[in-house]
Design goal:
This protein is mainly beta and about 160 residues long. The protein contains one helix and ten strands, in the order αββββββββββ.
């Protein structure tokens, strides 16, 4: 009887472990929910759309930010991995390196540092349990000072 109980407990533990280890897939088209986001001292955009291709650990995204009725639009992108290694990236305030690491199955943390040493940006990105909402908590330090804001995205 003990042997059977141990085997059942071991199987249960293995299946729970494999469920916990499954990483949420970020793939999709994500639209900024301006109303649910909090902006602090950061300029509030009219819209942001991000297209993500995620094949763990590989991560690729492109996006567009619209600040005013089509007059001030910026694009951005990244191609690398969620592996804690540095990857080159160019931001609106300069080029630099970014590291993205996994905190748990639904959360990543990224750290960007500009090549000139003037800018640092920390972001914690998490996907909801149902996979329909993405939340980014961002803290940026640079010449204008420190800024914090939260972006909330809805999946199309």
């Amino acid at each position: 009887m003990r042997g059977i109980a141990w085997k059942l407990t071991g199987c249960t533990a293995l299946s729970v472990g494999s469920c916990l280890a499954q990483v949420a897939n970020l793939t999709g088209t994500w639209d900024l929910n301006v109303g649910k986001s909090r902006w602090g001292r950061v300029q509030r955009p009219l819209a942001i759309t991000v297209i993500i291709e995620h094949h763990e650990p590989a991560l690729k995204y492109t996006g567009t930010i619209v600040y005013s009725a089509g007059e001030d639009t910026r694009t951005f992108g990244f191609e690398g991995a969620i592996d804690g290694k540095e990857y080159p990236i160019t931001r609106s305030f300069g080029s630099g390196k970014i590291r993205i690491r996994r905190l748990d199955s639904r959360t990543t943390e990224s750290v960007f540092r500009s090549d000139d040493g003037l800018w640092e940006e920390y972001a914690r990105t998490s996907i909801s349990a149902d996979g329909k909402s993405l939340r980014r908590e961002i803290r940026r330090k640079g010449p204008p000072g420190e800024m914090r804001w939260t972006e909330v995205y809805d999946k199309r």
